[in-house]
Amino acid sequence: MDGGRIINPFSSVEEAWFWFTRCQLARWEGARIDTGSKLDERPCGPDDIYRWACDLYRTRAIGPAHLEIMAEYGFLGRTPDMHLDAELIDGLLWAEGMHQLDKLLRTKGMIEP
User: Fold this and answer.
1) pTM of the entire structure?
2) What span, in angstroms and rounded, lies between the C-alpha atoms of 77 and 17?
3) Which phi-psi region, left, alpha or beta, contains residue 98 (left: φ > 0; alpha: ψ -120 to 50)?
4) Which residues pair with 5 in a beta bridge?
5) 16: exposed, middle or buried (C-beta count within 10 Å: 0-12, 13-18, 19+)?
6) For residue range 79-111, what is the model confidence (pLDDT) as tens digits?
7) Domain limits of the chain?
8) How far is CA 43 from CA 5, 23, 37, 112, in A?
């Protein structure tokens, strides 16, 4: 609890990433991300997740292909289907990118232990 608010950590890195991409889509459609809104119930803001993903890129923990796949499937609202030949490589890149983001978000306490 923070100042009377209950802070809800993410249950998984995928939940955090899809939340971030939904927030970004809402912004592009004209919504304002207000710090006094229900988004505040999360342990961080969407910009934090964006910044941390960029940090992973800058430190070369993930590459441009990882970011591209994370963005593509994030905005689609689904993970790549590893059973489809056309999405197998995407799935591997997604898994690697999510693994790196998961490690970072867990060290920051953003994902439930």
Assistant:
1) 0.87
2) 9
3) alpha
4) 2
5) buried
6) 999 999 999 999 999 999 999 999 999 999 999
7) 13-107
8) 11, 15, 13, 10
